[in-house]
Amino acid sequence: MTLIKAIHLSKDYQVQEVQTPALRDVNLSIEDGDFCGIIGPSGSGKSTLLYCLSGLEKPSSGQCLVMGKDLSEYKETEIADLRQSTIGFVFQFYNLVPNLTVFENMLFPQIVAHKIDEKRVEALLELVNMAKYRNYFPNQLSGGMQQRVAIARAIVNEPKIIFADEPTGNLDSKSGREVMELLSRLNLDLKITVILVTHNPDHLDYCSRKIELRDGSIVNDQPESI
Ligand SMILES: Nc1ncnc2c1ncn2[C@@H]1O[C@H](COP(=O)(O)OP(=O)(O)OP(=O)(O)O)[C@@H](O)[C@H]1O
Ligand SMILES: [Mg+2]
Question: Does ligand 1 lie within 6 Å of residue 13's CB atom?
Fold first, then answer.
């Protein structure tokens, strides 16, 4: 099943008089169960692609379809619902709420979605090996630990898709590998589709598909040989 589709997707950013083309005529289908690794030089449009595919940014032209429906046809509230329930996000700098504990950070998306399930929070903290840190605050944890909590938080409302924008970009190589192994388990065991941006070519080994961007265009899209 196709979960996400980009059709002739282009995005320009305008800052005062200067117009920057960030994406140019991108065509892409992401299937249920894919683990896509997106690579490309800085400024090639990787983050912009994630933001357009997830409804955080609007395309300048072309379409983004999520589960068969054009994002431009979703109402604002429907896009908010999509982000609460269907899509999980993981960022380079974790984005945990600093004055909430690990446990409270995990509960937060459930509170927003009116779907509190403390047992699920406990189980996910076990899954990412962070259960004993449930009462710690983010600044009392290492980067790798914070990212594992951020990943657990991203899946707390059982999304079908995780978007991860350089989740290992700020980590040492060992913590980076742990994060990649965790994402791989979510993909293989929990059948979550993962769309990952990375600068590290070694991480493509975890992916089922590699997409290379250059100057806003896809220049390479192929299954990774594992
Ligand atoms: N909010 C914005 N306003 C103006 N220009 C932007 C904005 N966001 C991105 N751009 C421009 O769009 C282009 C693509 O940026 P993008 O952030 O998608 O690249 P990237 O591949 O994610 O780079 P990096 O690897 O450095 O994160 C760049 O030229 C960037 O300067
Ligand atoms: Mg980026």
Answer: yes
Residue nearest to atom 13 of ligand 1 (CA): 22
Boundaries of every domain in the chain: 2-223
Give the CATH superfamily of 2-223.
P-loop containing nucleotide triphosphate hydrolases (3.40.50.300)
Q: Is 190 in the pocket of ligand 1 (CB under 6 A)?
A: no
For residue 104, the surrounding DSSP H or E stretch is helix 102-112
Say if residue 76's pLDDT is above 90.
no
Question: What is the C-alpha separation between 60 and 188, in angstroms, rounded?
Answer: 35
Q: Is 46 in the pocket of ligand 1 (CB under 6 A)?
A: yes
pLDDT for residue 175 is more than 90 = yes
Q: What is the pLDDT of residues 90-138, one digit of tens each?
A: 999 989 999 999 999 999 999 998 999 999 999 999 999 999 999 999 9
What is the per-residue pLDDT across 190-223, written as a single tens digit (0 to 9) for each? 999 999 999 999 999 999 999 999 999 999 998 8
**Helix, strand, coil fractions of the chain, as percent rounded to 5:** 35, 30, 35
Whether residue 26 has pLDDT greater than 80 = yes
Helix axes 118-127, 143-154, angle to 10 degrees: 140
Question: Cβ-count burial of 45 within 10 angstroms (0-12 exposed, 13-18 middle, 19+ buried)?
Answer: buried
